[in-house]
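> example.struct
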């Protein structure tokens, strides 16, 4: 049955490749002639692909599988320059290119001087390109998290990335996997940013994941095995109008992180810039150390806040989540006293 499935899958892939090479709606020309490709006008309803002019494709061998990725490096890097690394994990029905397009993180990385790693989920692992963040009972989620860690180590070893200045950013399913990876390797990362995601420990199967996404799961505290173990600082960005991941998940994620560190919430303050959606910001501190920040965006659905127009899962009316994420990460880098290897 496995061999039959593989043969069937191979035939489907070959057919898809042949179809992709032939212009849709165009008739095949006569022998020796090529059909004229269809040209599709780019409109607001037609998502555009990210232009990663300085991107490089590569493979990193994880613990259990290879992991494809795209890597963005700012132009005109100096000799001996070593830059922070931000790993961006896409959501369901996305890929590395579409996440780069919606977040416009590469543009920010060019001006702020950091590198961006976009790990890519394999369609054979999930038909909707979701990270299997909830499959902790079978160990599948942990293996995927380990493969991301392997990709990060590969980049730090082969590229001018500062291994002491690494942060995780995830959207939706990517946020769930990012938080799981941070829990598995808490001392490896300086910061974690969860956008429209669910905290680790809240689901262990597909059924429990659906309950958690709907806001019907009771928050489960994380088990602490080492009293000296600290989690990286967490930024949670969540839309109050999210119909896919209920907004309660954002509050629970920040509270779970705060409970781990014994942090207390400060006073909620509202922020609004221009005509963008307003947001309520809550900081959680343990003494003078910032443990978590919750940014609840009023009216935002299941979309990257402040993302590019015309992209799926992207809402330009929200506060700029990319700048919020980098500002948070940069603050953690400054507070960490991480050595400057440049």
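> example.seq
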């Amino acid at each position: 049955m496995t061999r039959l499935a593989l043969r069937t899958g191979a035939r489907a892939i070959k057919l898809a490749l042949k179809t992709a090479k032939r212009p849709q709606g165009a008739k095949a020309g006569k022998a020796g002639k090529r059909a004229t490709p269809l040209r599709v006008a780019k409109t607001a309803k037609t998502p555009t692909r990210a232009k990663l002019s300085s991107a490089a494709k590569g493979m990193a061998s994880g613990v259990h599988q290879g992991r494809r990725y795209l890597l963005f490096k700012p132009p005109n890097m100096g000799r001996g320059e070593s830059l922070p690394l931000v790993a961006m994990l896409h959501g369901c029905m996305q890929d590395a290119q579409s996440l780069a397009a919606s977040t416009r993180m590469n543009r920010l990385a060019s001006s702020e001087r950091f590198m961006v790693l976009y790990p890519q989920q394999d369609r054979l692992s999930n038909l909707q390109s979701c990270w299997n963040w909830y499959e902790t009972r079978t160990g599948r989620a942990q293996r995927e998290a380990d493969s991301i860690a392997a990709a990060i180590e590969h980049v730090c070893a082969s590229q001018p990335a500062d291994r002491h200045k690494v942060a995780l950013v995830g959207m939706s399913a990517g946020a769930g996997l990012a938080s799981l990876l941070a829990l598995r390797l808490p001392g490896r990362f300086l910061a974690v940013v969860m956008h429209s995601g669910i905290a680790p420990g809240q689901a262990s199967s597909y059924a429990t994941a659906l309950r958690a996404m709907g806001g019907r799961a009771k928050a489960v505290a994380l088990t602490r095995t080492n009293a000296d173990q600290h989690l990286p600082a967490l930024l949670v960005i969540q839309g109050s109008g999210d119909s896919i991941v209920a907004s309660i998940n954002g509050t629970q994620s920040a509270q779970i992180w705060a409970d781990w560190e014994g942090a207390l919430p400060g006073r909620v303050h509202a922020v609004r810039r221009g005509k963008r959606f307003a947001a309520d910001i809550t900081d959680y501190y343990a003494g003078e150390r910032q443990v978590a920040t919750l940014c609840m965006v009023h009216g935002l659905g299941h979309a990257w806040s402040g993302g590019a127009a015309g992209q799926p899962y992207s809402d330009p009316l929200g506060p700029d989540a990319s700048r919020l994420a980098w500002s948070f990460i940069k603050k953690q880098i400054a507070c960490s006293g991480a050595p400057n290897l440049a």
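> remarks
Confidence is low (pLDDT under 50) at residues 1-54, 59-64.
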